[in-house]
Write a structure and sequence with these properties.
single chain, about 210 residues, alpha+beta, 2 domains, 4-stranded antiparallel β-sheet, 12 strands, about 20% helix, globular
Length: about 210
Amino acid sequence: MKRPAHWLSASVALLAVTLFVCPKPAAANSYNIFDLGTANGRDLVGMDTAGDVVISQSYGCGVASFVCYVTYVDGVAGTPSASAPNLVYDDGTPCSSTPTGFNALNTVCNQGMVGLGTVYNPNGDKNGTYIGSGDDLQLLTGGSADQIFLNSVGDLAWTDGAGEEIFVAIDPPGPAVSPIPEPGSLLLVGTGLLWFTAAVRRRANR
């Protein structure tokens, strides 16, 4: 049975509108993960809203001080200091419940986000450190999360006791979903739809 050309054109137009007005969300955030060095003789002190991490250690300030503090900005260590920096820490608080399907050893919640270290998850997911919201979590690294801090913008710092390393995951600014298609994609899809519509009309008119 032949279909009218205007019916086919309307179908193509509807498909185009659907493609353009329905943005596709990213599967997961792209965190920048920095290794802050060994956890031997070192502990996480806190993290601020900017994602700057303070670590205390038992070496680096000479014989005058038994405790030394190092501040990391985007994974880069500052100069060790015998006194703690004047930062307002934003570390989150322990979660009141564990996300479904995860066996959490340590959890931290902040502004709707959750970070946790897990082992032997009932849902079969790998052991390691996760971050996300609700029950939608993504794996950052394997290992453990003996200490774990989460700031209000979604940056996570933790001590991997299994590997004896300290890490921070920085969530780059910007939306995870872009509702506006790229100009190049618009041109490519638009040209293809015009060609397809013309071909359909020619066939329908025969």
